[in-house]
Write a structure and sequence with these properties.
443 residues; 6-stranded mixed β-sheet; 16 helices; 43% helix; 21% strand
Length: 443
């Protein structure tokens, strides 16, 4: 009869193989390594199996000497295992967006570094150590945020990396528990570090982990497994929803337009289907409710803007009115020209960018400004809040609300008519130039 520790070894490594395949089948993988039990178990197991891998460690410097001790441990572990390691030191306070929690700032920065390293090394995927307990906690967090089925389905074993869909994110331990990863390390004789902040309840996830889950387990034995099973059912239901939404889209969407009135007449769950179609285009649940209300009251015409997309609701049909580089009455044209012989126009309404840098990494997004947006102004050092830039320029509120900004990797590149970033500038080595020009509305 196998011991529990041997079962842990078998389950952990079998779970990794089932998702990633055998070592010879997988390409290069970047592994997120914090030094905690979960990420150490993932790293050790992948090394034992023989994957082509490297580790990335983020030192957020939030816990003083403890953070540096974690980094030292990770360096020592990777040295013993013979794994290449990249360590990134971060200033979380300086990088935080306005209104952003410490948890979300760390997550955003961490995933940005994952994406950067994956692109630099041509990695097949980024592997993180989320396990079953994490998924159960995520379920309750999303439940308290009024998430729909897309949130309640939990984390997926394979998904696009947040912030950069071109990079694959894999979670090989999603089928095992936190206790299982600790027992695995016990079997292998490997130590790990304990983040002291996980023991308290300062962060939302910790309150679910340290208060909600123990209370549930006390009254409902097997609660974790039951919730995990429900998450699996919801994931299957979500897959069905996506499939059916695609079929309905082919019926009610023609040339980018959505016949909302016909959908509401034929489909009982029309609002849900419409939200599924529009949420990926920058529209909120509240905006979808407004669209449904307008159709129900037979309101003649109304414009709706979601992210980079603008639609006109006309007699029950939602039609796109501009390209994705348009917001409201403003439109930006984007063209590429050869750098040789280019004569730059001196205008606040035209901006020039190095095309190679423009194309690298995450695609440039055109969208309205948001609280917390930052820019690295051309001709200045450091970064500046966009709200201060608008105040300095005395930009009218109605213009500020609809002016399309060029944003890449969370950094504002250009505020047409107001300010240009020093990033992606055209230089002597530039071969091709992206020319962006703002078409101002008639006044």
């Amino acid at each position: 009869m196998m011991s529990n520790d041997y079962k842990a070894t078998e389950m952990v490594e079998a779970g990794i193989r089932s998702l990633l395949g055998e070592a010879g089948e997988a390409g290069h993988i970047v592994v997120g390594l914090s030094g905690g039990a979960d990420s150490v178990a993932l790293t050790v197991a992948m090394r034992r199996i023989g994957y082509d891998m490297e580790a990335l460690h983020c030192n957020y410097h939030l816990r003083g000497d403890e953070s540096d001790s974690d980094e030292a441990y990770v360096r020592r572990l990777c040295g013993e295992l013979g794994i290449p390691l990249t360590v990134c030191g971060l200033d979380v306070e300086a990088e935080a967006l306005q209104g952003e929690s410490v948890e979300m700032t760390c997550r955003r920065l961490r995933y940005a570094l994952f994406a950067e390293r994956a692109r630099a090394t041509g990695a097949w995927a980024v592997a993180v150590a989320h396990h079953r307990d994490d998924n159960v906690e995520t379920f309750f967090l999303n439940l308290m945020r009024s998430a729909g089925i897309a949130g309640l389905k939990g984390m997926l074993p394979v998904a696009p990396l947040p912030g950069d869909p071109s990079v694959r994110l894999v979670r090989p331990l999603l089928g095992v528990t936190r206790d299982m990863t600790e027992r695995y390390l016990g079997e292998q004789g490997v130590e790990y570090v304990v983040d002291s902040t996980n023991l308290g309840c300062d962060y939302t996830r910790n309150r679910v982990r340290n208060r909600v889950m123990p209370a549930l387990r006390a009254d409902f034995p097997g609660a974790d497994a039951a919730v995990a099973a429900s998450i699996d059912h919801l994931r299957e239901a979500y897959g069905f929803v996506v499939e059916m939404t695609g079929r309905l889209e082919r019926i009610y969407c023609k040339d980018g337009a959505i016949d909302v009135a016909a959908m509401m007449s034929d489909v009982t769950s029309a609002r849900f289907v419409l939200l599924s179609l529009l949420s990926g285009r920058g529209f909120s649940a509240e905006q979808v409710d407004e669209i449904v209300c307008c159709v129900g009251s037979r309101q003649a015409r109304r414009r709706f803007v979601g992210g980079r997309n603008e639609y006109l609701l006309d007699r029950g049909v939602l039609r796109p009115v501009a390209g994705e580089d348009s917001i409201g009455e403003y439109k930006v044209t984007v063209e590429r020209v050869d750098a040789a012989g280019l004569v730059m126009e001196r205008s606040n309404y035209v901006a020039y960018f190095d095309a190679d840098e423009w194309d690298a990494g995450q695609a440039v997004e055109w969208r309205p400004w948001r609280q917390g947006d930052m820019i690295s102004p051309l001709g200045m050092r450091g970064r500046k809040k966009l709200s201060d830039v608008f105040n300095d320029a005395k930009t009218p509120a109605d213009v500020k609300a609809v002016l399309p900004l060029a944003v890449k990797d969370g950094e504002v590149l250009w505020v047409p008519g107001v300010k240009r970033s020093r990033l992606l500038t055209v230089g002597p080595s530039t071969r091709s130039v992206v020319v962006c020009r703002l078409c101002r509305p008639a006044r």
